[in-house]
Amino acid sequence: MIPLRLQEISRATGGRLVDGADPERYVDGPVVLDSRLAAAGSLFVAVAGEHADGHDFAAAAVDAGAVAFLGTRQVGVPGVVVDDAAIALGAVATAVLRRLPATRVIGVTGSAGKTSTKDLLGAVFATAGPTVAPAGNLNNEFGLPLTVTTAQPDTETIVLEYGARGIGHIRYLTTVAPPHIGVVLNVGTAHLGEFGSREKVAQAKGELVEALDAGGAAILNADDPLVAAMAARTQASVVTFGVAETADVRVGELTTDDAARPRFVVTTPKGRAAVALSLHGAHHAHNAAAAIAAGLAAGLDLDAMVEAVEAAIARSPHRMHVRERDDGVIVIDDAYNASPDSMLAGLRALLKMKTHGRRWAVLGAMRELGAETERAHREIGIHAAKLGVDRLVIVGADASPIADGAAAAAGWSGEVTTVADADAAAVLVAAELLDGDVVFVKASNSERLWRVADRLVQG
Ligand SMILES: Nc1ncnc2c1ncn2[C@@H]1O[C@H](COP(=O)(O)OP(=O)(O)OP(=O)(O)O)[C@@H](O)[C@H]1O
Ligand SMILES: [Mg+2]
User: Considering the entire predicted model, what is its pTM?
Assistant: First the structure.
């Protein structure tokens, strides 16, 4: 972290220095939530989690070099005691940003594709100068401020993912890190259980662009009416992206190659360019267009951005990660998470993969869909059958409506099997795979279905 004195941290957080915490000492190492990652100069944030209480590890963090811990009670080692560690961590991030007045913050939100697009934005903005956009899914009240604390004095751009499980979550995150440019990808069905309706999802996602000031830019999906309508909710200038004729950054002539990698022509106010992505799945054309639109709003060079998005590969794990075995079998690990929209996007990509073999989909449960759960699973089964998946392997009882949907789809000549767990799925598929088969693996994160993909690749 850029150096901050403990005194400054206690002032920013409204906390109390305890047990010998020296107000003049600098925190200049990494801010960490995991005491095992503490190093010289660290600040250890102690959080009471489901399984463990971080306060129990504060002493270990200090032993490892942490200057202090940030937590809610004294534990006998130097610390900053606050009412709420997450809010305090947010305040530390805000203090860091105040010391980096020239650094621009790019925010991205949406129902699907935030992390993928954050990685593309990272590649785009890195063409212009030092950029912070760490791999992974750091989109909540801990991950977002932690990302901010990794900024260096020379950081020009910080790309942040703003996640939401309810109204007001993104608004809070924008108070921690006010964005200069805000990208809204889509309003889908992810986390519908918590929100209740897509309109509520739109209300929540739009909080990102409400936080922009008049000098900022809102990057909105022209193809998604609920996103396009957010133009009315921002003071910032609006740049739209998508396949719509009206889009400022327009995706045209979209096709995919034999490995389902998008090829398209992007037309922008600054010119046109042919784009051939290394990422798999047509949906990444939208994500790339969003990243380019954000870059254009910041005055970046179109050709350099196109080169950057073309070179970008899947950086955050389990997102359309395509591996080919020696025998030609292709395994697509998209098991980081799943919602109906991303399931469909992934299945479409599977069908775009050119193969002389069969197309398999190993699918597990989609979580957090509330009252829509059963219907959403059934519909995925129907889609999988209609798209023409050859073999469906459905993992776990909660996912079984997918099998029902597929089985009921008219005219499908494929086959569906339901298995109890990931192990059983891996055993079944491994035994039956033939040269040239393509296997797509996806479920919500909690199912950890990437184990199937790993087993198939590693044997
Ligand atoms: N524009 C898109 N439309 C639909 N699906 C997408 C899109 N972009 C990515 N996906 C798919 O959605 C899934 C999740 O992608 P990613 O992790 O980038 O999204 P996220 O919004 O960060 O998710 P989370 O809410 O878990 O943070 C992946 O399977 C990915 O391939
Ligand atoms: Mg994410």
Answer: 0.92
